[in-house]
TrEMBL record, chains A, B:
<dbReference type="Pfam" id="PF24102">
    <property type="entry name" value="FLAD1_M"/>
</dbReference>
<dbReference type="InterPro" id="IPR036425">
    <property type="entry name" value="MoaB/Mog-like_dom_sf"/>
</dbReference>
<dbReference type="InterPro" id="IPR050101">
    <property type="entry name" value="CinA"/>
</dbReference>
<feature type="domain" description="MoaB/Mog">
    <location>
        <begin position="11"/>
        <end position="171"/>
    </location>
</feature>
<dbReference type="InterPro" id="IPR056596">
    <property type="entry name" value="FLAD1_M"/>
</dbReference>
<protein>
    <submittedName>
        <fullName>Competence/damage-inducible protein A</fullName>
    </submittedName>
</protein>
<dbReference type="InterPro" id="IPR001453">
    <property type="entry name" value="MoaB/Mog_dom"/>
</dbReference>
<dbReference type="Pfam" id="PF00994">
    <property type="entry name" value="MoCF_biosynth"/>
</dbReference>
Amino acid sequence: MTTDPHAVTAAILVIGDEILSGRTKDKNIGSIADYLTAVGIDLREVRIVPDEAPMIVEAVNALRARYTYLFTTGGIGPTHDDITADCVAEAFGVGIDVDPRARAMLLERIKPEDLNAARLRMARIPDGADLIPNPISKAPGFRIGNVFVMAGVPAIMQAMLDEIGPTLRTGARVISETIEVGNIPEGAYASDLASIAGAHPGVSIGSYPSMTQGGFLNRIVVRGKDAAAVAAARAEIAALVARLRA
Amino acid sequence: MTTDPHAVTAAILVIGDEILSGRTKDKNIGSIADYLTAVGIDLREVRIVPDEAPMIVEAVNALRARYTYLFTTGGIGPTHDDITADCVAEAFGVGIDVDPRARAMLLERIKPEDLNAARLRMARIPDGADLIPNPISKAPGFRIGNVFVMAGVPAIMQAMLDEIGPTLRTGARVISETIEVGNIPEGAYASDLASIAGAHPGVSIGSYPSMTQGGFLNRIVVRGKDAAAVAAARAEIAALVARLRA
């Protein structure tokens, strides 16, 4: 799938010390991954970096150059440790200032007399960016080039993703078929599965063990964008599993 | 904390298409993060990459050069999509072959007549690596240089982490103090908090909003390795919050 020149690709950049310290367990990577897969965008890479400008700028520039889209989460609040907008402006080499459109959005929720300097930080938007509305707490995200800058709070991130979803170029949806293997050990089918994978280069085939109270439980997943190719590989794997069960 | 030349730092590399597709939700990042924080190792970066050799090799080399330790998870099973060991060997420029010690470990669980070519893949270890025992399913992980290669199944990863923990050089533990702010909005304290942060450069201060049924709930976290410095910043923040509540 990676060699498809028409593939729409993406990366996620999670920004925040609190994820790296373990204090907060990230929930955004999994939900963005589900979303992108559902619309046919290949998530190719994820990075998590601390609230430090050099690392954020480097990651933004590395990832936006390499993929169709980059989605960032975190660091767009009013406090001193929220530096994502400034870092994205630096990565693009553009200015950043209070954006009147963003200021107006904040005023939908905040009284004018309460719009202090800290809150106005949430209206600082890099020059040339489009805003991403935030239906929950109003402080917007933004899009600049192929980079979408979203909040870290999962409910707000999800609302922003719903806002930008319709604007994304999407690819052919990946069809995914799961073959339940039960407790047949991976080692008993790995060689045959490798042969099937070799004979079906148009699909990707993975074997995923998980542990349950009763021991290992294995699943084989076939993924691809061509329904016939996925079905053909799936049929061969199902036959293999049936032979092993017999 | 990042400028401390004695700091022990780490990165995590999660390897697997199933995480990027959203099919499997990663649980290892959070538990490794907790573990490292508890022993005074600063987790500085995380990457998630697909089961593709060029991306794995590039990430291994980028991260092992930059941090004290690199921990990888995933891709060490018997199936064709498990390519982590070969990629790590390639990253280090060393050979890889079936390791007699690893083969012996597999034979603790697998009958000799069942030790087929696929299962023997789990005994392929880069030249010069030390093994990481796997008390659950026997197939070992390994350490080469500053890179620890672990399984992706969370229970096995955890068991391997427990095995290697005592061998790690650890740093000063980070002390973390949380000040509950309740529903006082971040924008009401952000400026004062920035002043406190500026006056306490030896600690890191973060403000973390979360959403509950009743609206936002904010917490301020002070982190640092010097107990007195953390306590001093904590006291100023507690006084600030008390003033805002009054």
